[in-house]
Design goal:
The protein is mainly alpha-helical. About 30% of the residues lie in helices and about 5% in strands. The protein has seven helices and four strands, in the order H-E-E-H-H-E-E-H-H-H-H. Helix 4 runs antiparallel to helix 5. The longest helix has 15 residues. The radius of gyration is 27 Å and the shape is elongated. InterPro entries: Parkin_co-regulated_protein.
Length: about 220
């Protein structure tokens, strides 16, 4: 079984992209304060992986007509909108022409990135102090200092929490979540099925790559 330091590689990739290649760094969300503060709660209606609500005008929404037909509203015509005398020749010459709308359907946005608010269950547990771990800053790389033996943890309770933290993009939540999943999968003796639920929900290439690397630890 391969043992790659995925959590440590994330720091290397981010350093190369920002410091060497000059790509823009990650912007912190307004709700995220310092690593010693508690995250400001997001709006109750803001859900992770939710679709963006389409704002349609009242004129674009169909309605029930008096003859029980579902139709769209038609704009009222004024005298200046009707065809005038002499417009027939202008239409034939091509001076006046009707704008034909495009027949192609609008983009559905199936592969568009969805909302990823800072309200993961892992972040909530970490800020509340419910996770038995701490970051150990060593000379070569950072590791997790577990307060309890990893093999004795309740996987039905902790593993979903750590997997929910994979969608985090800010530190120290991302490192702790990814490194915690690595340690949990290395110490487990049961057959675990790693789904790609997070990638399907958020349509995020970065999250999909992290899950692909973590899949190497599947027994």
């Amino acid at each position: 079984m391969t043992q790659n330091d995925i959590a440590g590689q994330l720091f290397t990739f981010e350093y190369c992209n920002v410091k060497i290649k000059g790509k823009p760094g990650l912007k912190k969300t307004p709700q995220s304060l310092s690593c010693f503060d508690q995250t400001i709660p997001v709006a109750p209606g803001r859900r992770a992986g939710a679709h963006v609500r389409v704002k349609a005008k009242s004129s674009e929404v169909p309605y029930w007509s008096p003859n029980c037909e579902y139709r769209h509203k038609v704009a009222r015509k004024f005298p200046k909108d009707y065809t005038k005398r002499g417009d027939g020749a202008r239409i034939k010459s091509g001076e006046l022409h009707k704008i034909v709308p495009k027949a192609e359907p609008p983009l559905a946005g199936a592969f568009k990135k969805r909302d990823n608010p800072p309200n993961s269950l892992f972040r909530k547990f970490y800020e509340r102090g419910d996770l038995p771990l701490a970051v150990e800053h060593s000379g070569s790389k950072n590791v997790i200092n577990w307060k309890v033996e990893v093999s004795k943890l309740d996987y039905h309770y902790y593993l979903p929490v750590f997997f929910d933290g994979i969608r985090e993009k800010e530190e120290p939540y991302r490192f702790l979540a990814v490194k915690g999943v690595e340690d949990l999968l290395q110490a487990c003796t049961l057959h675990l099925f790693l789904s790609i639920y997070l990638q399907a929900v958020f349509r995020s290439y970065e999250i999909g790559c992290e899950l692909e690397y973590l899949a190497e630890y599947e027994l």
